[in-house]
Write a structure and sequence with these properties.
Blueprint lengths: L3 E3 L57 E3 L14 E2 L2 E2 L7 E3 L34 E3 L6 E3 L12 E3 L4 E4 L13 E3 L4 E4 L13 E3 L4 E5 L12 E3 L4 E5 L13 E3 L4 E5 L12 E3 L4 E3 L14 E3 L10 H8 L7 E3 L7 E2 L17 E3 L5 E3 L13 E3 L4 E2 L15 E3 L17 H4 L16 E3 L7 E3 L8 E3 L6 E2 L13 E3 L4 E5 L12 E3 L4 E4 L13 E3 L4 E5 L4 H4 L11 E3 L12 E2 L2 E2 L6 H37 L1 H32 L25 H5 L2 E6 L3 E6 L2
Parallel strand pairs: 1-5, 2-6, 6-8, 7-9, 8-10, 9-11, 10-12, 11-13, 12-14, 13-15, 14-16, 15-17, 16-18, 17-19, 18-20, 20-21, 21-23, 22-24, 23-25, 24-26, 25-27, 27-30, 30-32, 31-33, 32-34, 33-35, 34-36, 35-37, 37-38
Antiparallel strand pairs: 3-4, 28-29, 39-40, 41-42
Helix pairs in contact: 4-5
Length: 714
């Protein structure tokens, strides 16, 4: 269970709380929380019913309010009794702890996941409030106007809520503001030009809202900006008119998914601290200028899906090869077409040596897969989908030490499935401990599957290893060596000309989740061993020449008839086509040797009695193995029945105690029976808590939905 830290020093109450008393709150070792009752973790069961804000006006000394909840903070939102007085219905397990993570003292509050409420007026009266965080909850409503009266505010972070309304011009009052994060909400209207007067602003994060209108040029006056992230809105304007030269500290720029026009301004290349640029899904045009090479720290670059499209993809790739720090590069769907830079035009190639994701998909590239890709020893993901690439897949592609995802779908690639590809080190041996990616990308990236929700990735190691060769002109058989790729998660070979049987060795790919072999010329039966692929969630062999019955396993029945249609010789309940029994003619079944059917019948008859015998023997052994010793040894028998009596009595006592506790704590004001009670030593005990318990170091309370817990107040 997570705890809630109050690090504000009460100067006027130092006689009540001293640093030694709030240094190390610990669970009382003699009376730890009972494991019998499950701890609540549901984000929809918070007891909060009021708004953040109305009580903060009485807390003028608080200068740090943190309601931020992320994956580290999964605490329940419970009530708290402090000094015999109930604070307004919002606290959950409260402890005092000296100091703060900042130099000056602060007040920090942490609310549980799923906090459902609004922010009502009151924050403006907190004359010393510096930091207000309440992200990753379900806060709704408007941002109160009086928040702009808290002139000492340095940070406002409210990401991932359901707040709406406009950002007021009064934000100019917050002259000390350095962080303003309202991302992933529903704010609308225009950005106030007064934002440009916030001279101390470093982090402006307004991603994924409904903002519209022009991007204010006054933002270029915020010379201390480190991150400018206003992507996924409907902002307009000619980006080429902006002068970025004043933003010498700018590290991350994200203006993607807007309605911006013009060309990339050359002044952007004067921001030497830039590590990440994302300008995709706008209406930009023009060229990627050679000056981009001067950004020596640039590791993340995305120009994907620009509507007007850039020009000269060949030249752009050659220019970007000079960016030595690039780790993530995607320019997909942003060019009208061109030739893939070949080996002839590149002398002493040393570009892209740090690149781990290279995405040149949907750029209209022609030619063959170039040999310079074989020198990218750090490459993990290669995406050349939806181009006009010809030729075969080179065998050296299977030698790249870190490559685990190859996407070559929707091209004109011919030839067979290279056996060398089955020896990709990352798919055969997996990622060694030393290779595990512990570095996050400078900006999160998103992927939206056809039949799923948008997925956000903060690290490339989170991508599923896959090979996608669908929609090409490949032929031949699927090699049995494919069984070596133990760590492969997805295999897409649909819409090709593969023939022959489906290799049963595919059943060795225990991590396989997607297998699509549809629209080929495969024949034979569906290997029954495929039922051993326990993780397989998507399977499609439609429109081939397969035959025989479809296995009746529950897993295969869940794939649906569409996964098998287009195979005239397949039969089974899924296709509503009964499998016909084979005919017996002169002792021969469909070409089998004479008398073979009799051998099968005899084997079946000989096997059936033994199966029944084994069941009976197993029952007898199990029954007498347990009951025999109890009948023969009295001490064992007494101990066994004593255990059953104790278990029954304990269950009844615990149940009665929980019912009684629910009734007692439901009478405490403001708590409503769903709270944790923390009583400092010497405090007046509330109704329902005995004086002896209140006077001890360990105090009792209900945790979650009735779980009895004890807490030491040191």
């Amino acid at each position: 269970m997570d705890s809630l830290w109050l690090s504000q020093r009460y100067h006027n109450h130092s006689d009540i709380y001293d640093d030694s008393r709030r240094a190390n709150p610990t669970i009382c070792p003699a009376k730890r929380p009972s494991p019998l009752s499950p701890t609540r973790s549901s984000s929809s069961s918070n007891p909060f019913k009021d708004f953040i804000g109305f009580w903060l006006g009485f807390m003028a000394r608080f200068d740090f309010v943190d309601c931020l909840v992320d994956n580290r903070y999964l605490a329940d939102c419970l009530g708290c009794l402090l000094l015999g007085e109930v604070l307004p219905k919002f606290f959950g397990k409260i402890f005092f702890k000296g100091g703060s993570r900042r130099a000056s003292s602060g007040f920090r509050m942490k609310f549980g996941v799923g906090l459902v409420m609004g922010i009502s007026p009151g924050l403006g009266k907190c004359s010393k409030l510096r930091i207000f965080r309440a992200g990753y909850n379900n806060l709704t409503g408007l941002l109160p106007e009086d928040i702009y009266n808290a002139t000492t505010l340095e940070e406002i972070e409210l990401p991932s809520n359901s707040l709406y309304g406009a950002i007021s011009d009064k934000i100019v009052n917050l002259t000390a503001l350095n962080t303003f994060d309202l991302s992933y909400n529903h704010f609308s209207g225009v950005l106030p030009p007064s934002l440009g007067k916030l001279s101390k602003l470093k982090f402006l994060v307004l991603d994924s809202n409904n903002l519209e209108g022009p991007l204010p040029p006054s933002l270029m006056n915020c010379t201390k900006l480190v991150e400018l992230r206003i992507g996924a809105n409907s902002l307009e304007g000619d980006i080429s008119t902006f002068n970025f030269s004043k933003l010498s500290q700018l590290s991350k720029l994200d203006l993607a998914v807007n309605l911006l026009t013009g060309t990339v301004p050359r002044s952007l290349y004067s921001c030497k601290s830039l590590k990440a640029i994302r300008l995709g899904e706008n209406d930009l045009e023009g060229l990627i200028q050679p000056e981009i090479i001067s950004l020596s720290s640039l590791s993340f670059l995305s120009f994907s899906f620009n509507k007007r499209q850039l020009t000269n993809v060949t030249g752009a790739v050659k220019v970007l090869m000079g960016c030595k720090s690039l780790v993530f590069l995607t320019i997909s769907s942003s060019f009208l077409g061109g030739e893939m830079p070949g080996d002839d035009g590149i002398v002493e190639f040393d570009g892209f040596q740090s690149v781990r994701l290279l995405d040149l998909s949907s750029c209209g590239l022609t030619g063959e897969i170039p040999g310079w890709l074989s020198k990218l020893k750090k490459l993990e993901i290669l995406n050349l989908n939806s181009n006009r690439i010809t030729g075969s897949i080179p065998s050296w592609l299977g030698t790249l030490p870190r490559l685990h995802s190859i996407l070559l779908a929707s091209n004109q690639i011919s030839g067979g499935f290279p056996k060398e590809l089955c020896r990709l080190p990352m798919l055969v041996h997996g990622r060694a401990a030393a290779q595990v990616d512990r570095n996050h990308l400078e900006l999160p990236i998103f992927d939206k599957p056809e039949d799923g929700d948008t997925i956000q990735y903060s690290s490339l190691s989170l991508f599923s290893p896959m090979i996608d060769l669908s929609n090409n002109n490949m032929s031949g058989s699927i090699p049995s060596e494919i069984s070596q790729m133990q760590f492969l998660s997805e295999l897409h070979l649909s819409f090709n000309n593969f023939s022959g049987d489906i290799p049963h060795q595919i059943s060795n790919l225990k991590n396989l989740k997607v297998l699509d072999l549809s629209n080929n010329h495969l024949s034979g039966k569906i290997p029954a061993s495929l039922t051993f692929l326990n993780l397989l969630g998507i399977f499609n062999v439609s429109y081939n020449n397969l035959e025989g019955p479809i296995t009746t396993s529950i897993q295969f029945q869940s794939f649906g008839a569409y996964a098998f249609e287009g195979n005239p010789k397949l039969c089974g309940a899924l296709l509503q086509k009964e499998c016909q029994p084979r005919k017996v003619i002169d002792g021969v079944i469909d070409g089998d040797e004479k008398g073979k059917n009799q051998d099968v019948e005899n084997a079946s008859q000989n096997q059936n009695p033994w199966s029944y015998i084994s069941i009976v023997l197993g029952f007898i052994t199990g029954f007498w193995g347990v009951c025999g010793p109890l009948m023969l040894k009295k001490t064992w028998r007494n101990a066994y029945f004593q255990y059953l009596d104790n278990a029954k009595n304990k269950f009844i006592i615990d149940w009665i105690r929980l019912l009684a506790e629910d009734d007692i704590f439901s009478e405490i004001p403001y708590l409503g029976g769903a709270a944790s009670v923390v009583i400092p030593q010497g405090a007046v005990a509330p109704q329902g808590v005995s004086a002896s318990e209140a006077g001890q170091d360990c105090v009792a309370g209900l945790v979650g939905d009735g779980q009895l817990g004890w807490q030491r107040w040191d």
